[in-house]
Amino acid sequence: MFQIGAEIIGDDSAAADIEILRLASDLVREFGVRPMVAYTDLSVRALPVVIAKRTTNGVPSTTATLDDIAPFAPEAADRLAEIAAAFPQFELQLDDFDESNTYYTGLRFRIYDGTSRTKLAQGGRYDKLYATFGTSAPAVGFTFTIDDLD
Amino acid sequence: MNLLRIALPKGRLQNETLAVFAAAGYDIPTESDLGTRRLVFVRDGVEWIFVKDADVPVYVEHGAADLGVAGFDQILEQECSAYQTVEFSFGRCRMMLIARPGAVLSKVATKYPRIARQYLEARQLRAEVVALAGSVELAAVLDLTSHVIDLVETGETVRVHQLEIQDLVAEISPRLIVGRHAYRADGKRIREMISRIGDVVLSRKDGEGTQVAQAEILRSAQDDGR
Predict the structure, then answer these.
(1) Check whether domain B4-91+173-224 has CATH 3.90.1150.10, yes or no
(2) Subunit contact B218:A63, Cβ cutoff 8 A
């Protein structure tokens, strides 16, 4: 299994998030596939207004909107609003909070083939990861799994 | 725009399932459509496919359908990992351990070998599991096996054959299942469908205490004034 990907290191702005999202989705289009992108910001998943709406039988779900999280996490809400404005066709899914990877600190997204529903790429922001290797630097990136592109 | 594909079960659950979708405002296949030999219908951006009930969870698990309606018995037996988003109030029954009165447990006949093995293990019972395709109670009547595990609705089959129900294995109901990838890849449309179906089920509570996840949560959120 091979992976290709890209990162922007050293830039913690929303502009970098947007550039990475654009690069990843453009790559998918280069392969003649229509991308469907679901994204969220993992820094808000522990907010009561988000958690409180999880369903009882294991289906992740929330009715929380950006307006709901804004009073508690204004920066994350602003950033998500910028992304929503840049990509109106992508889907904000605040209930994507079953995350086993602990290193994502902000934006978290997945790209699917719109027709076959196959997951093609995934990524997000991981501002604390480089520090664990000795150099502190914010970073945002994505990977494609090559086999899924066949 | 690509189609949302939903797999519906042929057989005993088909008509009531379609009725719920119709009540939710979906343009379902008509009587005359279903009278043809076709198995695939496209209406209003939704692709309806009709498959054997045991196959609905398989289609959804492999992503060949985005959603499906399947009985909890088949969901368990096929070890389907899809989200079970709405529980329907029709088609409910119970999976039971049935035997001739006084029979000693040695073999269990069933259409659900996986569920049977899990049940036996959970109860720390030892018995051989014999997989059958149908008319399962006959195995106990004719002594092919000491016990059977099968669905019970009215209990008539058990009574007629003078068998006795010994234990409850599971409560069974049909569920609206959604593939995990589909749930993310087509979130808006799928959540809308879950919500519409959930609303219909809630409004039809048969006094059986329907437990509906999404619809209940959304409704309570609306009550909060959001």
Answers:
(1) no
(2) yes
